[in-house]
Each structure stands twice: as C-alpha cells, then as structure tokens.
Amino acid sequence: MSPRPSSMREALVAQTLEEVDQLVTRVEGLSEIIGTKAEALDRAAQRYKEAVTALNAQARADLSKYLAKAATNTVEEQRAALQEAARLAFRNEAAQRFDEVAARLEAVAPRTDSKSITRSFVMGACVVSVTASIVLTTLVVHWLR
C-alpha cells in the first residue's frame, strides 16, 4: 500500500488514478460480456435463418401444389369444353343431315311404307352418330393427355 498523500494535489492524482484503474477493469470485463452477447446473437441469427429457410421451403411446396392443381383444373376445363363443343357441332351437323336424308327418303319411298323406313333409317343413323360421338370424344380426350 502506498503512503498517504501529503498534499491535495497528490490526493486528487491518487483518486483519479484509482478511478481510471476501476474504469480499465470494467472495460476489460466488457470484452467477455460482448463476446457472450455476440455468440448469443450468432445463435439467434442461425435460428432465424433456419426458420426463414423452412418457411421458404413450405411456401414453395404450397405454391407447387397450387400451380399443379390450377394446371390440372385448366386442362380438365379445356377438355370438357372441347368435348361439349364437339358434341354440339356433331349434333347440329347430324340433325341437319338427318332431316335432309329423311326428306329425300320420304320423297323416293312409297307413301305407305315411307314412315317406317324413315324411322328405321333415323334410328340407325342415331346409333351411328352416338357411336361416332363416343369415338370422337375418346380421341379428343386421349389427344389432350
């Protein structure tokens, strides 16, 4: 221990040096605290990065599922629209042709038998048209796949 200061000036210098020594000790202790806090911040940053990565992966998976579903729905809607358009076109075309053929048959066939012949022909034509419609629809469906 040092002797007691003999003057006011020595007392102030001693007190100042003592306070500086305490401050140096506290600053040296801060490096440990700062190191600990930095490590904690690094761990928190790593956890945050992992959480963001997981969220990003989940968002990608959800978006992929949504896009796949939307694409499937779109293809199915297009397929249904094409099938319906093919049916309507065939039905309209077939109805006009049936009327024309029936009118010709009635004009050519004898009056007594014309209705039964026309009915038989129209029934046969209907069977053929339904079969053709099924085949056409099947071809369109396979083409769209």
Sum up the structure in keywords:
145 residues; mainly alpha
Percentage beta strand = under 5%
Query: Mean of residue pLDDT?
Result: 78
Calculate the terminal CA-CA distance, rounded to whole Å.
Answer: 97 Å
The number of helical segments is 2
Helix content: over 70%
Low-confidence stretches: none
What gross morphology would you assign? rod-shaped
Largest sheet: none
Structural class: mainly alpha
Order of helices and strands: HH
- CA-atom Rg in angstroms: 47 Å
Task: Kindly state the number of beta strands.
Answer: 0
Quickly count the domains.
Answer: 1
Question: Could you walk me through the main structural features you see in this protein, from its secondary elements to its overall organization?
Answer:
- The protein is an all-alpha fold and 145 residues long.
- The chain has one domain (8-144).
- It contains two helices and no strands.
- The protein has helices spanning 8-108, 114-144.
SSE map:
Blueprint: H1 8-108, H2 114-144
Helix pairs in contact: 1-2
Quick overview of this protein structure:
Helices cover about 90% and strands about 0% of the residues.
